[in-house]
Amino acid sequence: MMAGYRTEERYKNHEHKWIGRLMASILLLAAAAASMFLFKRFSAVLFPAYRTFSKTFMGVLSALFSIIPVAAWDLIAIGLVIGIMTSFFVMIAKRTSFLDWLTSVLLLASVIAFEVICGWMLNHYAPPLVKEIDLNVRKYSKEELAEATEYYFDKAAEYADRQVRNARGSLVRQDFDELAVIAGKGYVPLSRKYAVFSNGSERPVKKLSVFGELLMYSGITGEFMPVTGESTVPENENIVSMPFTMLHEAAHRLGIAAEEEANFAAYLAAEASADVRFNYSGYYMAFVYCYNKLAESDIDALRDLIKEKTAEDKRYLLVMQDLDDTSLYYKQYESRLEEVATKTNDTYLKAFSEESGVKSYGEVVDELIAWQQKKCAEE
């Protein structure tokens, strides 16, 4: 009788454990969902205090994982997958409770989701970056777009022949680690003028050691992971884009979550950099964004601009060569995986109020036009 009683007690305690894990998972996910609702409704009240917290938290994580010289999050992801699969087969072999295993996995996933959402993703509800830097953005005419395209073409050409190039005139790949250190500290000059860029991590951007090539085939050229506070970029990112991409991912670490705003922040940091490689990458990418929009709205105006500029100065030809080289470079990474990644990213962005989804990557053009007009007015 006594032995039977103890067995029954152990069973009840065992049952209570998986119920406890299930309840804990539900509470964590409910708390994350409630935070999203509150931040969406009351963002004006909750910022900038939350962004300060988030930057500090990401800085702590970034420092913690800096002991690993390459990106830690992809190694952790592999470890988690192996660990979960191993525990599943052990559960089958030992005939232990499936509910125990399932609720343990669910609790782990809930903890990670809670940390990611409450530790960083709520930055998606922050006030617009243009308000933080007092930049007036409005709708612009095709003529204003054409003027901005010309401005950034001029700026890119100014730095095009100051880059390291081979005999063909193509850019030579630079040392990743050197660029990563510069990018990690890339927002220091801006932080002296704009508080939104201050008090963040200055750790180097990290190299994606495992998933870098896979991300390239999925059309993703950089990744910020709130789980570890790491800004990461594949080693084989396109040469001319790499400094800009590094600054883009570093901007996310500062709590600038929206893709459009991270692009604009990356441009500002590149423009303010003391390194000509970052200057050129920023001006080049600004030109590309405007180039693409002008091609959609007035292709004849774009053709006339390129014809006029390239006829008068060979430096403009270098910019166009980099444009062609970039197109050829990315073509080798085209795959069906990109379609899946795009849909996944689109769903994520829309879930956090970026209604245009992945299209937000190109909408930085409005900010670039506003910035160009501000700079021209100051000159």
**Silhouette:** globular
Strand content: under 5%
Biggest sheet features: 3 strands, mixed
Q: Number of helical segments?
A: 17
Poorly predicted tracts of residues: 1-5, 357-361
Q: What is the spatial order of strands in the main beta sheet?
A: 1-3-2
Radius of gyration: 24 Å
The H-and-E topology, N to C, reads as HHHHHHHHHEHEEHHHHHHH
The helical percent reads 55-70%
Give the number of DSSP strands.
3
How many domains? Answer: 2
- Beginning-to-end CA distance, first to last residue: 93 Å
Which structural category fits the helices and strands?
A: mainly alpha
Report the mean per-residue pLDDT as an integer. 89
Walkthrough of the structure:
The structure is a single chain. The chain has 379 residues and is mainly alpha-helical. The protein folds into two domains: 2-125, no CATH class; 130-378, no CATH class. 67% of the residues lie in helices and 3% in strands. It is built from 17 helices and three strands. It has helices spanning 2-41, 43-46, 49-64, 73-94, 98-119, 129-132, 142-160, 176-184, 188-191, 212-217, 242-253, 259-272, 276-297, 299-312, 314-331, 337-351, 365-378, and strands at 206-208, 223-225, 230-234. Strands 1-3-2 form a three-stranded mixed β-sheet. Helix 7 crosses helix 17, helix 8 runs parallel beside helix 11 (242-253) and helix 14 (299-312) crosses helix 15 (314-331). The longest helix is centred in the N-terminal third of the chain and has 40 residues, at 2-41. The termini are far apart.
